[in-house]
Amino acid sequence: MSDYSLLILPGDGIGPEVMAEVRKVIGWFQTNRGMRFDVSEDLVGGAAYDKHGKPLADETMAKAQQVDAVLLGAVGGPKYDNLDFSLKPERGLLRLRKEMDLYANLRPAQCFDALADFSSLKRNIVAGLDILIVRELTSGVYFGEPRGIHDDNNNPENEGGRVGINTQRYTSGEIRRVARAAFELAKKRGNKVCSMEKANVMESGILWREEVQWVHDNEFPDVELSHMYADNGAMQLVRNPRQFDVIVTDNLFGDILSDAAAMLTGSLGMLPSASLGAPMDNGRPKALYEPVHGSAPDIAGQGKANPIACILSFAMALRYSFNEGQAADDLEKAVEKVLADGVRTADLMGPEGGTPVSTSEMGDKITEAL
Amino acid sequence: MSDYSLLILPGDGIGPEVMAEVRKVIGWFQTNRGMRFDVSEDLVGGAAYDKHGKPLADETMAKAQQVDAVLLGAVGGPKYDNLDFSLKPERGLLRLRKEMDLYANLRPAQCFDALADFSSLKRNIVAGLDILIVRELTSGVYFGEPRGIHDDNNNPENEGGRVGINTQRYTSGEIRRVARAAFELAKKRGNKVCSMEKANVMESGILWREEVQWVHDNEFPDVELSHMYADNGAMQLVRNPRQFDVIVTDNLFGDILSDAAAMLTGSLGMLPSASLGAPMDNGRPKALYEPVHGSAPDIAGQGKANPIACILSFAMALRYSFNEGQAADDLEKAVEKVLADGVRTADLMGPEGGTPVSTSEMGDKITEAL
Ligand SMILES: CC(C)[C@H](C(=O)O)[C@@H](O)C(=O)O
Ligand SMILES: CC(C)[C@H](C(=O)O)[C@@H](O)C(=O)O
After folding, report:
1. For chain A, is the Cβ count within 10 Å smaller at the N or the C terminus?
2. Where along the chain is Mg(2+) bound (chains A, B) (predicted)?
3. Is the CB of residue B292 less than 8 Å from the CB of residue B279?
């Protein structure tokens, strides 16, 4: 019998290439640490559309509900740009998030010392940066109803005659559960949470602020909590990102702010993410892990992609799904060692040089370092 | 008879201090260039609340509708943090924007050479930066209905029992008019527009993209147009902001992205903004000018505030409301000269030193330089 079941969804673009390197890492832990993984693989995004005519087949969705963890590569590509909204590769990913109810999206933005010079920010601003953005992932304007594009022909003042609508909708319960996740995580880190919204212009932001405060006062009074408007948050991330420990925010603000935070580190190819839901019968949370980077169609299939973000996503799976904290630490250290040794995929190659390697060689180096 | 009518709303915090310096500049143009300004002054924000019990009196609103241009300092302060949503200082500003129908908010993010080292970004990334964000300002989630916080007691799954709602709503006409403003401005600059939305997850973003494209194809085919998802936009602003010329985006994305862009320059105390609406009978657009910075209650009343953002907002008024392009250029050059001479308010004082001056001395230096 296996200990851990994993569904691998390589997806599009560089997804399959980087996932092949994760396979090596999984193999290493099977052979050398006696972990038993039951790994299955399936399609998502454009790859699923090509085969099934939709970006996530129902059988794939059902499988995802049964495994301990889903590992996803990336979705999307120019080939699919003109598909109908409901068929776009992104919808496959959004369906997974929604139906697995993965409400807490953990996006660490960490600056690796060996790579600090890649940042467009000054070294003294980003060196040692280690923040964690906890983004609500199953609600808000991404999923709220009503939504759509409608005719507005009876309105003579509306040149063009159409109207586009989306709804930002949050329940207090949705806010509380992601706030709890953020506070729990903060307790294991710097013990500080900053919550971001636009309570000065949006009522949903007022509710957000009040409910986060409620969870704090009733359940986590010892964690330091502050509130910040999201526009100021964007500014502060650029000005002095190290003032933050954990940031908790909604789906849309989280999308934008976590991307800005990721770019501060200068090495997008390094950043993993975890999306967690409620505990299943076996006590493990529903979980999906994916790199923050996209499908990078421009370099797909050329052995240029950096597999580290995907490998570190697997490290997050070891930690959050399988409770193998030691193994996760070891894997993260192996990555750091390889970087300190100057091993570099193309995206990490800077003026100071290093040993250029392909996607596959990077995977080999990391398993060797383990 | 006066040539130009101006309503000055100093507002809260450092607003009155910085506005006093603008008054000097206005005086200079009256005396030395024979421009005749009819200047009146009134209250907005917390100052208006203190007197009238609301953040903008109806008479002030009526005056704002009649003048050629409104010049606003800043609103808000901790004293007003616990006021009801509808009474908060911000509502005064939002009412002005909405009732004057100021749909195009121009936010230049310019990096002044003398100040490039203030940026948290590397000099080679930001030196010479000159982008213009055109933010839609009268619609979207800021104003869409339905909105509010409601009881949701019949939903046993909703711990807390409340729900917060806001609506993102854009008509094609609203999108087209701000797109036109962006294309017109681009023609006078780098001839390039990048439009940002989340068309991959929001239908209102799809409409946004289609309508901007329509205006381009039908009216501005010679301006270069690109589209970008707003999360990627946030990343690209951090990674390589000089790739942009004009960015056009909606009210909420514009709020966040323009603040991130402002912070790239490292000198928030320098950045002006203009909010423009449709032409009035005299051919001038409805207009409100304000610095990008806030009311900075922590330093209010101490003579520490930098008046340059507010003075440059007046320069924008000269250019966009009064068609005094030459005067605007002269004023901007005077500011550059004073900076090049090393004159510095506290916020601009860096390691390389300079001549420290108060708010009022900075105003004097700029009028002298004129
Ligand atoms: C691909 C897209 C739907 C997605 C999002 O907007 O959430 C992506 O930007 C992300 O952040 O994971
Ligand atoms: C003060 C606030 C209502 C305002 C906004 O959100 O638009 C401010 O952040 C701005 O950008 O002018």
Report:
1. N
2. 231, 255, 259
3. no
